[in-house]
Amino acid sequence: MVTTRFAPSPTGYLHIGGARTALFSYLYARKHGGRYLLRIEDTDRERSTDAAVKAIFEGMEWLGLAADEKPIFQTQRYDRYREVANQMLAQGHAYRCYCSKQELDEMRAGQTARKEKPRYDGRCRNRSDTPAGAPFTIRFKNPQEGATVVHDLIKGDIEFQNAELDDLIIVRSDGNPTYNFCVVVDDWDMKVTHVIRGDDHVNNTPRQINILKALGAQPPAYGHVPMILGSDGVKLSKRHGAVSVIDYRALGFLPAAVLNYLVRLGWSHGDQELFTPEEMVSLFDISRVQKAPARFDMEKLIWVNHEMVKVAPPETVTGEFRWHLERLGVSVATGPKLEDVVLAQRERCKTFVEMAEKSRFFYEEVTSYNEKDAAKHLTAEGKAVLAGLAVELQKLADWSAPALHTVVNGYAEARGLSLGKVAQPIRVAVAGMAISPPIDQTLALLGRERTLARLAAAAK
RNA sequence: GCUCCUAUCGUCUAGAGGCCUAGGACGGAGCCCUCUCAAGGCUUAAACCCGGGUUCGAAUCCCGGUAGGAGCGCCA
Questions:
Q1: What DSSP string runs through A180-217?
Q2: What is the dihedral of CA A242, A243, A248, A250, to 10 degrees?
Q3: Beta carbon of A434 within 7 Å of strand B?
Q4: Lowest CB count within 10 Å: A8, A31, A112, A355, which one?
Q5: How far is the CA of A127 from the C1' of B26 (A)?
Q6: Is the ipTM above a cut-off of 0.85?
Q7: DSSP string, A130-154
């Protein structure tokens, strides 16, 4: 069965680039009826934190990319790693290295000075003496001849000369296993068939394949996805703004939009820009993923989000809308139904941050007016309109959009005023600004009581 | 320095030797519509990194250059 995994290390937030490799892994597994697993690579005890683990879970859950099975933590598998390491030692695939850190540093310094690639020269490979009590690391005995080729799902065949690869440490002198070794043992034990991961691991791949071969295991297929760059073409970092997946929630995006944007970044299916979750699964084709890194474009994400917001069934997005309103300290206890406001606002709001800001007047009192808008529309003339209209509205029995439409339009027509001359002052009066849905809808949603009170307050 | 990877509008991309006068999308510009903001409609500017081959024919294949990126830890 096809098995993929996402294997982040919990040393920070869930990076947007990581989210994309997770998405590709997820899609690949789904498409082939397989499983998608999550593994926490927390062997770096210094930098790994529980908060980061939590952030990863939160991010994955928000995106809807939850793993099919319970996540695996590398720190809980040390016994297994040691067992495999000892087996390799016994079989002659690994050896003890007694080189000190200082000795290694000197070796590297010499190589760098000679403009050579810094690498371990294998001096302990055939060492016969075993200094009693001396600290040692365990190194993998990498083949010294021939070549290892990676049949990459995205990049095609990549050939490495084994002579280029040195004997890497698989167990540290403190007895703890290293990254490249844990990955190999885990992928093997988890029966991972397709390793889809970041581009930065390409150079680790031949080593991992060689270890797997020494273990007598069948290496999985690999697919290395290019990284995501900032808009300036430099590696995406905090300097570019949001890099953590969960930040995109705070920015007002829908998980579906982030997913859609991410899947189209470095991948395409003809001219199609928008995909349903089902289409993503059925249409995704890893071999069509771009080989070059792509730049992150916030403008396009915003567009994708707006497209999603415009067509999503309102009830499916009220959760995000409420979350943002409450984040602004707005109580939604009294006021129109969230669904109705979403329906009225979604055409003009690209994100939920925007929607919340432009809709808070439906739920809380207007305590101040936008200065420019007030100066322009709450003039003596404007106030007269508000006062006059208030009288008409008082008499209105049916507080519905069509009825309000008739009254407002009728008022303007009767006085030979353009609709703008009437609607704009009302807007400022009830919304505090000159931006709102069509005026009849706005008033209908706001309700009779609030409308009349605000009209009166502004007419003064 | 060494190894590996990459290269189409500003950005994401289509393009698998003739369908390319290089298509779509975001963003930009202009016009229309309009009670605001939007949305929508129409129009428009904008790219094959450079140089050699191969071929009747190259954005597409090959080689070289250039530029960018990744890796070279008892980090992951």
A1: HHHHHHHHHHTT--EEEEEGGGGGGHHHHHHHHHHTTP
A2: -50
A3: yes
A4: A112
A5: 62
A6: yes
A7: --TT---EEEE----SSEEEEEETT
Residue A331 to residues A84, A321, A323, A368: CA-CA distances in angstroms?
Answer: 58, 12, 10, 18
Residue A238 is among the residues annotated as catalytic for this protein? yes
pTM here? 0.93
For A164-193, letters b (16+ CB in 10 Å) and e give ebbbbbbbebeeebbbbbbbbbbbbebebb
Q: What is the pLDDT of residues A163-209, one digit of tens each?
A: 999 999 999 999 999 999 999 999 999 999 999 999 999 999 999 99
Q: Which nucleotides of B are covered by protein (CB under 7 A)?
A: 1-8, 10-14, 16, 23-27, 34-39, 68-76
Residue at A178: amino acid letter: T
Q: Any idea which residue has 């999550």 for tokens?
A: A38
| Helix residue spans in A225-313 (DSSP H) | 247-250, 255-264, 277-283, 298-311
* Residue position matching structure tokens 């810094």: A118
Q: Is 80 exceeded by the pLDDT of residue A339?
A: yes
Is the C-beta atom of A119 closer than 7 angstroms to strand B? yes
* Per-residue flag: A237 CB under 7 A of strand B: no
